[in-house]
Write a structure and sequence with these properties.
With 265 residues, the protein is of the alpha/beta class. The protein folds into 2 domains: 29-126 and 183-254, Glucose-6-phosphate isomerase like protein, domain 1 (Rossmann fold, 3-Layer(aba) Sandwich), CATH 3.40.50; 128-182, Helix Hairpins (Orthogonal Bundle), CATH 1.10.287. Helices cover 51% and strands 12% of the residues. It has helices spanning 2-22, 31-37, 68-87, 99-111, 129-148, 156-173, 196-204, 233-253, 259-264, and strands at 41-44, 56-60, 63-66, 92-95, 116-117, 186-189, 209-213, 224-227. The strands form 2 sheets. Strands 5-4-6-7-8 form a 5-stranded parallel beta sheet, with helices on both faces. Strands 1-3-2 form a 3-stranded antiparallel beta sheet. A hairpin with a 2-residue loop joins strand 2 (56-60) and strand 3 (63-66). Helix 5 packs across helix 6. It is globular, with a radius of gyration of 22 Å. The N and C termini lie far apart (46 Å). The model is unreliable at 16-22 and 257-265 (pLDDT under 50).
Length: 265
Amino acid sequence: MVDKKNSKKVERKKKEVKEKVGKKYEIQVTAKDMLEAGCHFGHSVAKTHPRILPYLYGARRGVQVFDLIQTRELLQKAAEFLYEQTKMGRKIAWVGTKRQAREILKKEAERLEMPYVVNRWLGGTITNWEQIQKNVRRHKELKQEIEEGKYRKYNKKEQAALGRELARLERLVGGLHSLEKDLFDILVVVDLRQDQTAILEAVMGKIPTVAICDSNSDPEPISFPVPANDDSAKSVKLILTELLRAVEEGQKASGKQLSKAKKED
């Protein structure tokens, strides 16, 4: 009788573990949430890219409307991909140079200790990584010197020059300080038309991409396209929040502890 009970417990435990391992990540946002955030609004019919047509529901008053059922399904795939990749320890870089994305992207990327670009994509970041890497290291050195007060050994003119250099590097590679050694593995882009150089470099470097694709853009080069409005602040925030949450859950699932949490403990 005891052996039978233990056997049942073991089988139940195995089943629980199997279910936990096989469980997929699920997004929280609904099609209704997307509708309320204006994710369905595209650009005018005249600006429609032919390759985005399969993701459109139709046109209303000369403006393209996205099929939000498809949008949610593709957002689910993108979020699930980021979740699984984060669990495996992959590095994800975020690019959002348009006004609607900068604030939330910078804040959340720093909180989750991920590389990001919110000012301008520096040409060669992927294709000429060795040179960009030197700028990242120089930025870190200057920042450390100033924080430790070592800059005081220079005269005022030299201090001013170092300050200008640090400000320039902060704009260019400040968000990439966590990439001192290796390049990132995945790229997430808010507006693929505005940051098309980043997409082109990712394609050349065979780096998987996730991007919001508006009705005037070509989704073909993107590994995981999310067809939606990339101009509305509410739409961008809603989609980014889901993608960022997927990464955060992936970090938790991998057992990774953020340095910030360590310090607080």
